[in-house]
Amino acid sequence: MNIDRRQLALPALAIGLLGVVPAFAASADEDAVAKSVEAFRAAQLAADAKAFDALCAAELSYSHSDGRVEDKALFITNATNGKSKFLSLGYEEPKIRVVGTTAIVTGKQVTKSKAGSTLGLTRYLLIYLKIRDQWKIVLSQETMVIKN
Questions:
Q1: pLDDT surpasses 80 at 18
Q2: Beta carbons of 45 and 89 less than 8 angstroms apart
Q3: Could you tell me the residue range of the domain that residue 133 belongs to?
Q4: At 117, is the pLDDT very low, low, confident or very high (cuts 50, 70, 90)?
Q5: 49, 76 Cβ separation under 8 angstroms
Q6: How many domains does the chain have?
Q7: What is the mean pLDDT of residues 14-23?
Q8: 29, 81, 116, 127: which could form a disulfide with 139 (CB 3.0–4.6 Å)?
Q9: Among 15-29, 81-95, 120-134, which stretch is predicted with the lowest mean pLDDT?
Q10: DSSP characters for 96-142?
Q11: Is the dihedral of CA 142, 61, 40, 113 positive or negative?
């Protein structure tokens, strides 16, 4: 059997393109998670219960830097009761890693109070699950950063 270069070119091209497709899929998932992270930050700043409900999974476990742990209902209640008012809330240096239907997001969170003083600098960890084609937060863990 004689095989010329043209017969080899198409399968080689197809294999090369198949190697690119997962990269596009991961990138699309990372973009979707990044949008969800920004929507969550905006919901925190606005104390938006409806947005929290849409962004968080029913199984949410939210651990604060002071050690308090809240389920979804308690988190939404406490985040929207007016006791915490932010002038600004920033997520810095976000790193997003998608592994199958799970996304791991880490970075720094900087908050300022209504008086303008810095409330804190924390490191955050968000775990997302892809549930029915939507990325939902199932875990949030904050750790206070102490400066000397």
A1: no
A2: yes
A3: 5-144
A4: low
A5: yes
A6: 1
A7: 44
A8: 127
A9: 15-29
A10: EEEETTEEEEEEEEEEEETTS-EEEEEEEEEEEEEETTEEEEEEEEE
A11: negative
